Amino acid sequence: MSSNATAPAVGYISCSVAVLLFGSNFVPLKKYDTGDGMFLQWVLCAAIWLVAVVVNLILRCPKFWPFAMLGGCVWATGNIAVVPIIKTIGLGLGMLIWGSFNALTGWASSRFGWFGMEAQEVPRPLLNYVGAGLSVVSAFIFLFIKSEIPNNTCPMDVTPLMTEHVINSAQDSCPSDRGNTWVDKLSVAHHRLVGCSLAVISGILYGSTFVPILYIKDHSKRNDSVYAGASQYDLDYVFAHFTGIFLTSTVYFLAYCIIMKNSPKLHPAAVLPGFLSGVLWAVATCCWLLANHSLSAVVSFPIITAGPGLIAAMWGVFMFKEIQGLKNYLLLMLAFCVITTGALCTAFSKV
User: Of 54, 143, 223, 293, which has the maximum CB count within 10 A?
Assistant: First the structure.
């Protein structure tokens, strides 16, 4: 690992890459029919696990700690709701909401030592508190931003962002099974309520995903702990963490197949975009773990979890036209200012 002088630089660069990739990883899927999301979840998680295999080989197979898999289970549980969230309130608004609650949960658990972890200190705690508080304020601002998501209709623009070479060109551009999921059967009034609620729940689960890794690292310093001598390098746990993600998603998909009486809704056109989305997410998470190691989770969490919302909102405004209207634009600008200020306060609290 880099020296103490360059560690913060590595951490902030890792944060920047993670923010960009997290804010863009669902973009390849946006114009594909993903159904209820269960098949997509499994494809995405398979790609994540393959990235973990490569990283694990590069790191020369560090010791596998099964407890680190629990964080992957928590993440996979929260990720089930992603497709319904995007269908109800859109990619930009959904990511902004779950990112804010992700930031708050991850920051608080690290700062105050929840779940049996040691509380993490920073040189300037006041700035750290202000940064986390602004992330919470931004979440409430995002709740007032209205997104335009077509309900039970076939959108005019269904051109995929990835070129389809394998799919039959004569395939109907508006599939007959579109609108058959439980999300599409919701009323317009319930769309926003369900989408925002699921985004909050997913954000809380996402914010807890690194707790097992941080717990192992904290207890590795105790001679009487079963984790005594465990690695302090966060990337050493990526294989266990991603394995937990893949195993949990596989269990959920098998349960889904049973519930669907062995007739799951598969969407072949979403396989390659879903795989690409999983790879982008996995690389972003590896960068996040590097940032945790260089900056500590109490600094990296508010930056990495809040920043992707800005990137996703830009996609929502300029590419997908989900967020429109002067009022929404002004609210977005206010939210951006608040969340950027919060990220800067959090970053400077480490200096």
Answer: 293
